[in-house]
Amino acid sequence: MNVGLTLRAAKGCWRVNLSQQCAHGSIGLFVPPSPPVDPEKVKELQRFVSLSKKLLVMTGAGVSTESGIPDYRSEKVGLYARTDRRPIQHRDFVQRAPVRQRYWARNFVGWPRFSSHQPNPAHWALSSWERLGKLYWLVTQNVDALHTKAGSQRLTELHGCMHRVLCLACGEQTPRGVLQERFEALNPTWRAEAHGLAPDGDVFLTEEQVQSFRVPPCARCGGPLKPDVVFFGDTVNPDKVDFVHRRVKEADSLLVVGSSLQVFVGHPLWEPLRGSRLAVSSCISYLCRLLLRQVYSGYRFILTAREKKLPIAILNIGPTRSDHLACLKLDSRCGELLPLIDPQ
Question: Which CATH architecture has domain 37-67+86-190+210-340?
């Protein structure tokens, strides 16, 4: 699964050259194997959707893998399975300029491809459900803007969106494409070769490649810039969480699409405790804060739906944290199954 990219400047124009494997085969590279669609399961999902009047759908990375965007957790094909690399940590990004430099260099190389990804049949199906009045609200954990590209409007991007950039000092928000132009102007002779795509729009570079990359500050106040997404170890905006809980309580059913709903146990966020001499109470306090931060991967919304006695269906290849709470579980490709459902 080696995917090669080369970035170079030629006559003032930046180009990303993708290997043939990446350009033509990446859509299937990051989707785990699944059994053929079971006609009986299709009928069950059709019945579930038909009975819903105010359906809330929550999507995860399993929707976007069919558009060629890798995820973290998928068996054999996710980032954790393919490499020993782990996602960037919020605290490291905020506190360390070299970490921001490395991140933005990687993101600069990966951005042309990441931003060019297009919706797949699952995104288009959910958008059509909204237009037809079946889908009451859509909550996505993805940061790729593919639901927006497909036309979804009744949408909450729980973890933000990579297509926006935020200043950590003044809060100014700008389009990511504008920042790409500033990167190009600051780094006219910078070159890099990368191998491997990561889930959040970046690629893998060596430390030597990164050292000469220049990162512009906020054009308004000079502060550091960050993509408008929730990095690991950060918290989702409480107002946004409350908003989604209200939408769940207003719904009459909940469909999970392409999400394992897992807490990231074993993630580098646990590293501060490794070899630590902290008191037991301090360790417990840290772990509680960690779980509260990570639990909003979506599981808490499932619990809210359960409390309201809403029927829950899950479409995801592989097990999820909430399978025991669902009245229907399907192991199929999202883009293969959702277009088969008539929302009317």
Answer: 3-Layer(aba) Sandwich (3.40)
